[in-house]
Amino acid sequence: MLSVTFWGVRGSAVTPGPKTLKYGGNTTCIEVNAGPRRVIIDAGSGITALGMAMRKEPPGLVDILLTHLHHDHIEGLFFFPPIFVPGTEITIHCGNLGGQSPEAALRQCFSPPLFPLSFDDVPARVRFRGFRAGEELDLDGLAVRTHPLHHPGGATGYRIDHEGAAVAILTDGEHTGARPDPRLVEFVAGADLVAYDAMFEQDDYAPHRGWGHSTPQMGAALVRAAGAGRLACIHHAPQYDDERLARIEAEIAAISPGAFLAREQMRVALSVDAERRVSAK
Ligand SMILES: [Zn+2]
Ligand SMILES: [Zn+2]
User: Fold this and answer.
1) Ligand 2 geometric centre to CA of 275 (Å)
2) Residues near ligand 2 ion, CB 5 Å cutoff
3) Which CATH number fits domain 2-280: 3.40.50.11540, 3.40.50.300, 3.60.15.10, 3.40.390.10?
4) Which residues does the chain have with pLDDT short of 70?
5) What CA–CA distance (Å, rounded) separates 178 from 261?
6) What distance in angstroms lies between residue 87's CA and the mean position of ligand 1's atoms?
7) Among 10, 101, 104, 280, which residue has the fewest nearby CB atoms (within 10 Å)?
């Protein structure tokens, strides 16, 4: 079984409050479970709730795949509960630094005066691994494909295939033309679920061109071109409240079958049968 749980779906800034209760205000964190294996994509503020849920489990290996190092994708790392559990071994992977490890940059954030502790002070053992987006990763036997995304400083898209089902997670990234990039189409071809940076609705995109984010409509075009399953819009703009997001969701569902805006703590189970059914609960 391949499943995806959205722990943080907001982009750029944490947005708590009564107007974001439906979709959630925590920044990016997505859990992918491939059978017994767990992979965590991004360490935005949503990773704190995931870490709380992991408290019931014995300490073990944790893989965190960062799309890039912008604050909204790492800000939850400081209060990720497993980092304070002895016996936990955390590997943080990052692919947008030209092959360099994210260690130096993360150590700068995770040290005084920005944070009272360093990675050497916490009970968990933390390792760092750099790669170049486009390489295939081998996480102890679980293959993870990667793809470079168009974003200031670069970002990495991930694709995980398991038992005939597949999910692609593409954030942060901006489309580069009127049609989906053929290399991205190839990357997500046939995936059952495509989580896509659809931060700005179409009418709001022009003033934000060049910011490195895309639209629900471009996500729908990508899914269609790739023969993929459902579109999950993620990285919601912090200035969009639930009412506005619900309207955007209705609009995109009308043009892309099964498309939705991801909500915090939503779990999508991907199962394969003759019709390649995708069930959400
Ligand atoms: Zn972001
Ligand atoms: Zn970013």
Assistant:
1) 36
2) 70, 172
3) 3.60.15.10
4) 272-281
5) 22
6) 31
7) 104
